[in-house]
Amino acid sequence: MTTPGPSMAIVPPTHAPHPTTDAKSTLHPELGVHDAMRHGLRSLHSETAAASYHPIQHRLEQWDDTQRQWKLTMQRNMFGMGAPMRTMMERHFVAQSPHMPARRVANLHLDVLDGRDETLDPSDFLPSDTTGDMRDLHTAMERKWGV
After folding, report:
1. How far apart are the C-alpha atoms of 62 and 122, rounded to whole Å?
2. pTM
3. Count of CB atoms within 10 A of residue 36's CB?
4. Are 75 and 113 within 8 A, CB to CB?
5. Spatial separation of the C-alpha atoms in residues 125 and 69, rounded to whole Å
6. Which residues does the annotated region (Disordered) include (predicted)?
7. Tens of pLDDT along 42-90?
């Protein structure tokens, strides 16, 4: 949700600017080998990431943010600046979950504000282990509060 201003884009752009470094741009001008002092250690992941990036991947990753930004822009155009500010404040307060971090709790309020209350996603009924292997409640609380 970090767009510079109000946008009327309904669909996100296909390509996103990815900082990729070409293998030839990191060569030493005289020796012709990778210059680790100026460009850091060579990473094959960063060199091959651009080739393995599918054009529709950015659209899928940015779909919800673009739709949310479009709805806020429409609210701003129709009702003034107060309506999108109120919506963003409500979403911010609802997104702050006071629940235990080791337990995955569905956030029905956030689903209602985002308009996903009538949809059924696989994450709604299939267990996902996105938090990693945090079975210990004390470790999870320390990680949440930064202790």
Report:
1. 19
2. 0.59
3. 11
4. no
5. 28
6. 1-26
7. 777 767 766 677 778 888 888 889 999 999 999 999 999 999 999 999 9
